[in-house]
Amino acid sequence: MKTSNEPNLPESDAPESAIRRRTLRSFGLFALAATVPFGVYSWIKNSPKVFGIKKPLRRVLDANEQIARTYFSNTHLVKTYPREEAAKRPRVNGFDGLRTSLPADWKLQIDRPNQEPLLLTMDDVRALPKQELIYDFKCVEGWSQIQHWGGVRLSDFLERYKLGTKSGNAPAPDRPTDLYSFVGMETPDKGYYVGIDMESALHPQTLLAYELNGQPINNQHGAPIRLIIPHKYGVKNLKRIGRIFFSDTRPRDFWAERGYDYYLGL
Amino acid sequence: MKRIVHKHPLAIRWFHWINFPVLFVMIWSGLLIYWAYDPYKIVLGDWTLISFFPDGFYKALGLSRRLAEGMAWHFVFMWLFLLNGLLYVGYTIVSGEWRHLVPNRHSFREAIQVTAYDLGLRKTQPPFIKYNGAQKIAYFSIMIMGAGSVLTGYAIYKPTQFYWLTALSGGYEMARLIHFALTVGYVLFFVVHIAQVIRAGWGNFQSMVTGFDVLKANDPAQPLRPAPEPQPTNDPTPDPAPIRPALS
Lengths: 266, 248
What we know:
The complex is a heterodimer of chains A (about 270) and B (about 250).
Chain A lengths: L10 E4 L1 H30 L3 E2 L2 E2 H17 L36 E3 L7 E3 L1 H5 L3 E9 L5 E10 H7 L21 E5 L6 E5 H4 L5 E6 L2 E2 L9 E3 L14 E5 L19
Parallel strand pairs in A: 4-13
Antiparallel strand pairs in A: 2-3, 4-5, 6-7, 7-10, 8-9, 8-13, 10-11, 10-12
Chain B lengths: L1 E5 L3 H26 L5 E4 L2 E5 L3 H7 L5 H29 L2 H4 L5 H12 L14 H25 L5 H6 L3 H29 L1 H9 L1 E3 L34
Antiparallel strand pairs in B: 1-4, 2-3
Helix pairs in contact in B: 1-3, 3-6, 5-6, 6-8
């Protein structure tokens, strides 16, 4: 049964010696080519580590970040859900930066160039318009959960307090060079810290959150105020913010130092 | 003189053998990632048939607590997997190889006959040119599965940027499940593939390296053509074969 349009395979006649020679040559090349994956593996394995991961891998992860930051749009919004779908008991997963108790004199500290640090209370933060966000929180481990957060847009916050720029003005889209490249955040005890690229920080769904399911967030979830950045994995969503600062170089990042990608953009 | 059949073009052999270590790295690093959140199992009522995976599995293979490493390898080698796959698909389309590969309306019946033959329930297998019906279905499926892995992979990797892809995959969690299930499919394919390659014997295996297979006279297991043709005079080029007479 010859199928309709499948051509026959080409055939030819060859002396046995030629076949043997050809076979040997093919297998020789095959064996040689088979050493390449072993070579690549040992090259990677013998490379020095850069922040917990082998240098060649780290370089490609950074290249992936460049691809993402160059070609992807920062205006895509994370999918939101109706309030009823939010988890009643949002999952807690990690206590780094929360192992000490919250200082009684806690204030949100924001470092500014050529000025004294700005110190704000929760009332100062709450004075800004409140945003709610019900979205699928995604952990780098692979699980996700629909959660309901409330707080202020980080972009509103930076605008209100004229932060994130070298000039000390509010961030303006027409002066991109005035913006710092990164926002750094750390817990009061400096036990946990993240760095966020400025584009992601200014995303309209990035929040300084102080409510979870309509209630003030509890200690385990990062009271009194935490970062909710829905287009990054959970590890970037720093709890219990102590200090915010701005930089043109990557601020240190807790999990990036432990072998994870720095960008982790979704 | 012997009659040889030029079975696998050089490009196909490259794509095939490049895919082998690359897919290995993808599966291995995928396991390192999957360890961090491993909820999948196959249950029948209250009875767990298979759990992906028991603790002993991770322990035996040393897969525990290596998520960062797994992600790094996965997001590096994904580019090679994607590129190799695109080149393979592009080549099969442009070269016309797809005619050997894409199943047709006879393939399913053929596949059943081939399976019956493989299980010893039939004396003969239906004739075929390059791949029998079962092979066509298997190899074509694996190509579609590869596309599925890439698409669901990006759906998990960038669910905000590729929100439409995530939606198409049935959501973020479904995309991860499909991505995992496809990988199980590769492993099952691999097991059958290796068994069949061993069954088919050396001549078949070496053709994936050399590109050609030596035809034996009256080999019932390889009824490629009714009889070797005297001379491929209809070939447009006088010397199309990789084996040149000058070698002899």
